[in-house]
Amino acid sequence: MFGKKMKTAFVLFSLVAMLLLSSTAFAVEYENRTEGNFTRNDQEDVLNQGDLPELDVIWVKIDGDIVENGDEVRLNLERDQEVEVKVEIMGNEDFDDVTIEARVYGDDHNRLSDDSETFDIREGRLYIKELDLELPSSMDMDAYDLRVTVAGRTGAVKTYNYPLYIDAKKNAVSIRDVTFNPSNEVKAGRALLGVVRVKNIGTDDQDSVKVKVEIPELNLYAVDYIDELESDDSVSSEEMYMRIPSTANTGDYEVMVTVEYDDGYKETEERYNIYVVGDEDSQSGTGDSGSGDGDNQPGKVQITAGPQTQDTARGQGGVIYPVSVTNTGSDAKSFSVAVSGVESFGTVKVSPSTLSVVESGATETFYVYVSANEDSTLGSHTFGVKVSSNDETLKEFPLNVNVVEGEPGSEEGGWDSVKKGLLVGLVVLIVLLVILGLIIAFNKMKGTDDEDEEDEFDDSASQTYY
Question: In the chain, how many domains are there?
Fold first, then answer.
């Protein structure tokens, strides 16, 4: 029994000795590695190796204001602007290939930095370098540090921290995006639609923001209003319709997009280009964006529209825009009418149908009925009407409806009133047809009586009396 215990103790002692020897060997290997080429990442000299450059930053100015390194007072700057950073340094000895960088960290979407060209410093001389930083409108309003770094090709770097606070203007609206349809090129005589997306980058909410798209060379413009634009929100305008004149020459045209806000006291503007393809063979109307005239082309198609602007009460009744299509060609053609831009404020129906076949020399009238929703905004609304034949657009033109406050107590639905109007028109038409039929029948009867009288006269004249 005693021999077994001694044997077990010897085995345990051997295992412990082996573990101690393994640990000692690992520690020696690790020490050898750290003393050689392998360097631990937590050593202090890894963070900033080499000698510091022998130069000093005398001062830093941001938009002309001197800021202090590590100051507890933060310089207040407004976003959506470019700031100028000036750095003055002096060399205590000669130092080659120096670069100065100004940078703001912490923005999720933008790299906010600028650096100087590489230059050489000579002892006892002063150097001033100008850098520019663009503070985007998407920056969060918060505290930041401007870090000015001076470094050479090798060695340590000197970094100076200047506290900032990025704020926003009280009233500021930016144009985020503009979409045109067609996007880059439009044919003369065709429609150009524009949608403008704006963002309120100020601290105050905005009301009645006016959005205007204009082509000055063609004397065209379209306007839309955004009723409410809260701070930090983005909103898109409705589609704005402009018809390029058929007489427009081929070339690039400047499109001005203007946004007015703060009760019209402030505005922001962006400029874009659109390419117009002229059509010398086009004989359509003058191309004025408000025109409702037809394309009266002998041997082709004549398209005319009713009044361009009409008033309607919101939630009550509606208005009718007649669109007449005359086929002056030698063959029958099918025509379709499409209406766009009404969904934002009301409903639209086309009677008797959106598609019709018009015989040669005949005229078909499409009745576009538009009614305003009860919650639609008061004022002018623009919508577009397109007449096509066999997938070919013949004409596009804008129409306007002015939504006014309805009279209380009116309960008739808009489409019901139109049906009643059409029914009354049908009754009147039937009465006219009946009267016309009676007149024709009366004339025929009168003609028969006259012939009978002439026959009797001839018979009596042919009798012989003795």
Answer: 3
Instruction: Report how far residue 68's alpha carbon sits from residue 56's, in angstroms, rounded to the nearest whole number.
Output: 14
Buried b (16+ CB within 10 A) or exposed e, 188-209: bbbbbbbbbebbbbbeeebeeb
Max CA-CA distance within the chain? 189
User: Is residue 247 situated within a structural domain?
Assistant: yes
* Confidence grade of residue 421 (pLDDT, cut at 50, 70, 90): low
- Single-letter residue type at 307: P
What number is the average pLDDT over the span 333-347? 89
Asked which of 108, 140, 167 is the last residue of a domain, the reply is: 167
Asked if residue 329 belongs to a domain, the reply is yes
Section 177-195 average pLDDT:
88
Are the C-beta atoms of 415 and 361 separated by less than 8 Å? no
Q: Is residue 62 part of a domain?
A: yes
269 and 319 in a single domain? The answer is no
Tokens for 2, please give them: 């005693």
Residues of the domain holding 117: 47-167
Domain harbouring 206, CATH code? 2.60.40.10
Looking at the structure, tell me whether residues 361 and 269 fall in a common domain: no
Asked if the structure places residue 404 within a domain, the reply is: yes
Measured in degrees and rounded to the nearest 5, phi and psi for residue 215 equal -115, 95
- Per-residue pLDDT tens digits for 367-385: 999 999 988 888 888 889 9
DSSP output for 390-404: TTEEEEEEEEEEEEE
- Count CB-CB contacts under 10 A for residue 147: 15
Q: What is the pTM of this model?
A: 0.47
| Tokens found for residue 258 | 């203007």
